[in-house]
Amino acid sequence: MNDIDAWVWWLVGAAALGIPLVVTAMPEFGMLAVGAVAAAVAAALGFGAVIQVLLFLVVSVALIGVVRPIAARHGRQRPGLATGVEALKGRQAVVLERVDSSGGRIKLAGEVWSARALDTGRAYEVGQEVDVVDIEGATAIVI
Predict the structure, then answer these.
(1) pTM to 2 decimals?
(2) DSSP letter for each residue of the chain
């Protein structure tokens, strides 16, 4: 064991941190792995164990402190372009067949959809414009 250089151990540690990164998809493990690679470089350049450990800690904490908030902020952002049924929510439609709480038909984005009124006591007549508030399966929920 003493024949193996410290930089090799740091690379083994980086690879070991890469395994939970892949399995759990937690980016923090990747940031720790980058810290271990930085410590391996320091070890290969001949720096002592204290510098290696400090470099590992500084790089890892800096990455977690800087990259993690940016990634979290990016993850909370809604996509700029809504697609699929998300793009239909909030659009207007025209009633083709009387719509009430039990059903009906509307023309939405050039297509005929089954529809249901959100308010159970409300009904919409043919030709009336309605707003789509949700899509449940193949049924548009309208107000």
Answers:
(1) 0.54
(2) -TTS-HHHHHHHHHHHHHHHHHHH--HHHHHHHHHHHHHHHHHHTT--HHHHHHHHHHHHHHHHHHHHHHHHHHHHSPPSS--GGGGTTT-EEEEEEEEETTEEEEEETTEEEEEEESSTT--B-TT-EEEEEEEETTEEEE-
pLDDT tens for each residue of the chain, 143 residues long: 456 899 999 999 999 999 998 898 888 999 999 999 999 999 999 999 999 999 999 999 999 999 988 988 888 887 778 788 888 999 999 999 999 999 999 999 999 999 999 999 999 999 999 999 999 999 999 99
Distance CA(9)–CA(43), nearest Å, equals 10
**Which residue's structure tokens are 């239909």?**
88
> What's the CA gap between 142 and 23, in Å, rounded?
43
What element of type H or E holds 139? strand 139-142
SS3 category, 91: coil
Specify the residue for token string 């800087």. Answer: 66
